[in-house]
Structures are given as C-alpha cells and as structure tokens.
Amino acid sequence: MLQDISQNxxxxxxxxxxxxxxxxxxxxxxxxxxxxxxxxxxxEASIRIMQTGKPNRDNNDIAxxxxxxxxxxxxxxxxxxxxxxxxxxxxxxxxxxYCYLIKEYLENLLYQEIYLKSVQMRDQHITDLVIDxxxxxxxxxxxxxxxxxxxxxxxxxxxxxxxxxxxxxNAKQHISSRNKLPEKTLDISMELKIQTLxxxxxxxxxxxxxxxxxxxxxxxDNKFVIFHPVEVLQYQLxxxxxAELKEKCKGVMNEFSKLDITTYIGVGGEGSNAEGLKQxxxxxxxxLKLGDESADNIYFYDDFLLxxxxxxxxxxxxxxxxESHLSRLAQxxxxxxxxxxxxxxxxxxxxxxxxAEKLFIHQNTLDYRIKKIVDVLxxxxxxxxxxxxxxxxxxxxK
Length: 398
What we know:
Arc Repressor Mutant, subunit A, five-stranded mixed β-sheet, four-stranded antiparallel β-sheet, Alpha-Beta Plaits, about 55% helix, 9 strands, alpha+beta, Beta-Lactamase
C-alpha cells in the first residue's frame, strides 16, 4: 500500500515545500523520492529509526551511513506496526516539523485507504447483489439462491420494496472544481477523494433510507440504486407511504444540492422477490427516462404509465399517429406553445384556473390559445375526447 503512493507523494509534497523528501519501505529501501536517482537505494539511517521507533538523536557520523543525507527522519506506522520511514533533507531543526507533518499526513492517508478498502469490499458484495437483481433471469439463476445470498447479508427480499434510482452529477468533476491544490497533488488523491465523496453520499442516502432492510448500492460515479421496503402501517393508506417516500427523496436532493450535485430520482412501483424487484428497478429506470424537467426532479413510474405504454409502441405507428393529429398545428410558428397548452389543459382536468396556473399565464390568454386550437382544427371547445387524442399525439411526438 505504501509502495503505491510513495513516489507521487514525495514528488508533490517536495515541490510544495521545496525540500527533498524520501520514503522507505520496512527494509529501509527508498521507494519514493523527490530525487528519483535515490529510488531503490538503502537508507541506512532508517534501519535504526525503525528499530527504535524514534528519530536519531543527531546527525553525527551521517556521512558513514549508506544512502543517507543530512536531515530528519521518522518511522511510518500503521496499526502499531512500523512499515517504513519518511525523511526530509536539510538542516535538522529547520526540516523536522515538515517531517512530523508529512508523517501524520501519510499515516492518515494509509488509515483511510484501509478503511475504504473494507467499506469497498462490503459495498462490492452489495453492488453484485443489486446487479444480479437488476439482471435476474430465472433460466440462468435460481431465485432461491439469490434470496439466500441476500439473507446471508441481512436482507429479506421477499418483503415488498420500492426501487429508487438516484442519478447525479459526475463526482470527479465535482471534486476537481473545488480543489485548489497543485495538479500533482490533485492527481495523487483524486481517486481517494472520489471514493470518500461516494461514501459521504451513501451516508446521506442511509440517513434518509434508514430501514434495516434497505439495500443501497453505487453502480457508477453517477448512479445509486436503493431497494427500500414499503413502510405501510395498518392505519396508513398506500398514498401516505408514497408521500413519505417522496419526502425522503426531497431530503436527499436537498443534501446533495449542498454539495453542488444536481440530482434526478426515479421511483418504481412495489415489488418483492427476485422477479418483482427486477421489475420495480426497470420501472425506476423508465421513470428517469420518461420524466420531464419538473420542478422537483422526482419521477414516480405510476405517473408515467401512459408514456410508458406509448414508448412501447412501434415507432412508425407513433410517428403516423402524431403526424395525422398534429400536422395542422405543426405548421404554425407558435406550435410548441399550443402543444404545452394542450398538455396543461388535459392534465388539469380541463379546469381553466388550474391550467392557467400551470402555464403561468392569465386565464384570458388560456382562452385565446384554446380558441386558436379549436379554430385551426375545426373542433368543438368541449370535445374533450379530441383533446385527449391530441394529448396522446403530443406525447408520441415527444
């Protein structure tokens, strides 16, 4: 582990403090140095330092020690075991404080690596489980095997769950934009910072989706998948459960926004066992695909059943249907404005005040637009069935 980061660390910190730095392994062999010609040579002064766990008392007889220059050197420890040393070349009293700071930074970095690896191992098992659920095929894998595997990890997949997919901005881009360190330093710990941010985001998700049977996995830099149990008490309505779920999603989006991460969330319907969980996962994905740029960016699949049905139709059919119903409107310069009016008119239940509010226009302006549509298409204002056909045609066009 020390070998992996020592050279980049020696180069970058050496450039920042304008001092020569070396890092050795447990055998006192230099494995990282701002002066690359020293890599691979023995640093004899480190042998005694690692044996005693203390710096040498002075620089006397320094010239007699192989591969050693005047400066200050300290042991590097991990879980009480000495695994190497770090040294800074220069006048002893001038550089020793640099050396203590570098030692502490290096040890903290190594501890973080160990913690992250243990977290990553657990996360990888969960991610593998989620991938197997999302791609479940009973002709390839027996459902009982998947359910047993989940049970060993502490999850009961026979309970009904909602799939929640959180799609967010790129973690690497987010970190780079906030980091003010020199480029070499940025390169050393970029991956570590991305991993740390991912853990932070998962902690946020775990705070809001805190049920012990909730499964949270990161499938990429930009995508988290959550299988959250349906929490409905006897006195609760199903709609109450969805309202609580939406509040959780809003809380997550608010916390992510504090980190300047834009978030979109898709929510599937209820599902249990392998087949049902796969279906709710696909529904959450579909909700993200079909969702428009609404104010809260939270899309429930049940709100897009019509859009999904249209999406499954043959493209040539939807194209012909849309053209046959919208061709006359499409010739107008303000066709898109009229399309939005039809959408709002239908989705508001043909209510003037609600439709006008939805469009942020005056009711008189709404009346004008409706009259324009009716005149162009030579239809009756109260032919709501015709308006529904137009609504479907616009969805097909989109």
